[in-house]
Model the fold of this input.
Amino acid sequence: MTVYHAGHAWIGGKVERDVRIDVSGDRITGVRAGAERTGEILTGLVLPGFANAHSHAFHRALRGRTHGDRGSFWTWRELMYRVAGRLDPDSYFALATAVYGEMALAGITCVGEFHYLHHGPDGVPYADPNAMGNALIAAAREAGIRITLLDAVYLTSGVDGKPLEGVQRRFSDGDYDGWYRRFETLRGGDGVRIGAALHSVRAAPADGMATFAQRTDGLPVHVHLSEQPAENEACQAVHGCSPTELLQDRGVWQPMTTAVHATHLTAGDIEILGDGQYVCLCPTTERDLADGIGPARALADAGAALTLGSDSHAVIDIFEEARGVELDERLATRRRGHFGAGELLTAATAAGHASLGWPDAGEIAVGRRADLVAVSLDSVRTAGTDPAGLVFAATAADVTDVIVDGRRVVTGGRHRSMDVAAALRNSTTELVLS
Amino acid sequence: MTVYHAGHAWIGGKVERDVRIDVSGDRITGVRAGAERTGEILTGLVLPGFANAHSHAFHRALRGRTHGDRGSFWTWRELMYRVAGRLDPDSYFALATAVYGEMALAGITCVGEFHYLHHGPDGVPYADPNAMGNALIAAAREAGIRITLLDAVYLTSGVDGKPLEGVQRRFSDGDYDGWYRRFETLRGGDGVRIGAALHSVRAAPADGMATFAQRTDGLPVHVHLSEQPAENEACQAVHGCSPTELLQDRGVWQPMTTAVHATHLTAGDIEILGDGQYVCLCPTTERDLADGIGPARALADAGAALTLGSDSHAVIDIFEEARGVELDERLATRRRGHFGAGELLTAATAAGHASLGWPDAGEIAVGRRADLVAVSLDSVRTAGTDPAGLVFAATAADVTDVIVDGRRVVTGGRHRSMDVAAALRNSTTELVLS
Done:
């Protein structure tokens, strides 16, 4: 057993002082506030581990590179496809290891990797048809965090069924059956869960959705939903309903389904998602890609459980994502005070982990997974602030210590087994140079 | 003479490699790209020093403390006034020194301090009527950065002339003449300039504006402008015109006048400000306070020179402010690509310094002030990105070395003469506890 002593810890929705946390194996076996200072000292505020519920690991290679010529959407998309075209299982393992290393340093103890880069050039499968997915799983293990691999159906390039072209052919299994044959050979394990995804109503034909929903029953399932108005318009034109309604009609909204983005919704859509659905917001990406501001408060009020993702990794900082939910709602409404710190932290932790198939993570409580994240109260950003309001002041740079499933991954702001910055530089450079 | 060697430097609007920068006293005396590696090595990308064109130093005490009970506007305002009520020259010197230290660490080499907390409790002047302003000047010196003290007229609590109450009485000099008598005794000096401010059309009566403009001719003058729609409505009701028009009519828009915020403008207002005015945007504050998104692109297109400020210091990070201008415009328009990195960096540097009365700062060029800011290209945030897109990837935590007027202030991410985090903690705690 390891005994940790936290100067401050977030327990049961509030900040407690001098908290003793006992850990055996991968579990928390004791929690007591007002304890004597003994064991391994974690200074600052100790939070449960963060869940990054929506990641496309390879997008990290684009950071800071899509704003040339002012950075139109097409600047971004062109480079995104160039990188997608160049990756192979080895280079993707290297890149994803670095990206998950950056996540570990930011206090993220589990990633939901929305994965569609399945096959080799021109869509020819690798000898191991899951070589790319398995590279992502291996990368998460290497970086010391858990992963839920959300393996995506990606078959068309439009709601109208337009075929995939160029690099997009790497995404396709031909049809739903082809996807399922490959998918069913994926294996989870220690720190690894397998989930599924429908890329979107643009990329996943409606005729196979109902069977998909049956085949993935009980698994975490993620869907990109209404990120841009154009998707809604195309769906109305072809199906006469919104994407949310189409997915409802085909039975995709199961208890473990997450709608990702959910930016442009009707009142009816919000009602559907409010029936206990997970909704993953990605504020830094939605701002970077000019998607707009989603109806976060309305979704939460309707009954949706909000989660958070860094998506395109323009930023990897769950504090930024969490406060972005509140701050963007302020921009949209011109009022303050929509989400309290506790709600935002729940989205960043317990709700996120549960949505990824880890309902036993995301809380500092007996029986839960021993994910602990110590955040400095003594950086220039956090000094003098109230620990209870830390989510509004801290950044990923303030994370000092990270424990995942009882194992130390980060100490003093450094990853214990890798030089993350060097790994990012080395794995990125060749991918982005022309 | 000191010779610096920058791995990369931002020169003449682009990134050059291996740049030798010669510094004599407070000036740059030589700049040459493609130089041999000699002298003091500055790794990463070296930028000109940042100007923080709008600061209320004491608001830093509120960071992370105004979101309890979800954080309404009133939560914020109540705490802001509580802190304002408690400060005296000694405690304000201590707090501002810490805040300016945080700015130095973020690469800010000059602050524009918009100062209205002039007098003692109940509005009784201190023995030195400028004790508070002089405390701010001394604080900037202590922290090693330049300051332009923008001493503000603050006489009423509404456009209708409603008198000040409670703690607000500390802000008032009674009338414009009283303000001017105190103001004219302020003295600049090495690294210190004196400018003036009209708090806003709410706090500065219209009848004295024209004389104010004459008395402050040639000085930097700042005005809070149309931060919230309520100000516009009140101004229309009393004066039958917008705040921008009222200030135009009274001759306040001089070449050295800066409009701060300028969030809610008419097309006519934009045309007026486009006639070469400075406009200081404070995106992190405008998001935090739910002000809304100002017409940044339209102002720049009309001819305004944009500058940046961290204002309430919810965040002190000029990278965040700079990219916030572009990112919030994306949220408002649902398109990417409004501002290039070069425009954003100009706002953060040359334009900001010029607006504060330091036209010889903000560029790495011969004859300019020797303000140099080295930003790591090797942090987990910046590794693998393009140096030319750094403003979209870096944070204040990536600033490693800062030289102000030829003097080293920050080395290896640490302030050379103070423990900034400890200073922030020590100077804040008593002010905010009830």
